[in-house]
TrEMBL record:
GO terms for molecular function: DNA ligase (ATP) activity. The keyword Ligase applies. This is Non-homologous end-joining DNA ligase. InterPro entries: LigD_pol_dom (IPR014145), MtLigD_Pol-like (IPR033649), NHEJ_LigD (IPR052171). Residues 28-279 form the DNA ligase D polymerase domain. Coiled coil: none annotated. NCBIfam families: ligD_pol. Its EC number is 6.5.1.1. Keywords: Ligase.
């Protein structure tokens, strides 16, 4: 029998709680749901008012993975949805506005991916993002070196940056900015990626061409495009272990000396939140936003 629970007055059917989703550690779906329930206070502000893209892995990372933006079949009528303009026509997408909706979405077993804009201002970014993707033999150690350089470069423009692990092998850098057309934020990010390559030509590449990437860090600026999304802070990733896209301190970035030194799993997050709070809380505070130069 499928267990029924009540979350904020909403009845939810939670299925397959004993199913192992992250085989390297035996992490189950029940543990996944517990993780999201206990992390909701930090996660929900990063999801709120941003249309959700689902990367689902209902049978774990070795099963079928599929990416979807439209509202999934069977979505309860109390889950907020909205029409989102897209080049190929409008799509209706989910908004995770509360704990009940978060737990419904978590029960689908999904990575949470969101754009850099909010539903009431599509194509107008309020966040700037850089995705550092290391090409072997480069690792997150090299990503941290690039992130430190880019942090200083952004500071020169009056922009404060915040770092998080990707939950995979790389690092993400984010900042809150005054509402700006996505095309403008993407171009600004591209310019800084080009500057980083010029400053560190043996370490950085700003083009996606795979033949250029071995041993370097690809600074992906393109996720600022309105149609692109980025893994949301605190989302679990579809990996053998229950790794999390976890905010990190700049001290941790500066001290990164080995590929495993910035790997955080679901059980690590609650103690970090207790110790630090949400290290990316400022991204949700519009008073912290500054205009692009």
């Amino acid at each position: 029998m499928t267990p029924i629970t009540e979350v904020e007055g909403r009845r939810l059917a939670l299925s397959n709680l004993e199913k192992v989703l992250h085989p390297a550690t035996g992490f189950t779906k029940g543990e996944l749901l517990h993780y999201y329930a206990t992390t909701a206070g930090a996660l929900l502000p990063h999801l709120r008012d941003r249309p959700l893209s689902f990367l689902r892995y209902p049978d774990g990372p070795d099963g079928q993975l599929f990416f979807a933006k439209n509202v999934p079949p069977g979505t309860p009528d109390w889950v907020t949805t909205a029409e989102v303009p897209r080049t190929e026509g409008a799509a209706r997408m989910v908004l995770i506005q509360d704990l009940a909706s978060l737990m419904w979405a978590a029960n689908l077993v999904t990575e949470f991916h969101t754009p850099q804009w909010r539903i009431d201002t599509p194509d107008i970014a309020d966040r700037l993002v850089f995705d550092f993707d290391p090409g072997a033999p480069a690792t997150i150690v090299e990503c941290c070196e690039v992130a430190l350089w880019l942090r200083e470069r952004l500071a020169a423009d009056g922009i404060e940056a915040y770092a998080k692990t990707s939950g995979s092998k790389g690092l993400h850098l984010l900042a809150t900015v005054a509402p700006t057309p996505s095309e403008r934020t993407a171009e600004y990010a591209r310019q800084l990626a080009v500057e980083a390559e010029k400053a560190m030509p043996r370490l950085v590449v700003h083009r996606m061409t795979r033949s250029l990437r071995p041993g370097k860090v690809f600074v992906d600026w393109s996720q600022n495009a309105a149609r692109k999304t980025t893994a949301t802070p605190y989302t679990l990733r579809a990996r053998a272990e229950p790794t999390v896209s976890a905010p990190v301190t700049w001290e941790e970035v500066g001290d990164c000396a080995s590929p495993g030194s910035l790997v955080f799993r679901a059980p690590d997050v609650a103690p970090r939140l207790q110790a630090y709070g949400d290290l990316m809380a400022a991204l949700c505070d519009s008073d912290q936003a500054v205009p692009l130069p």
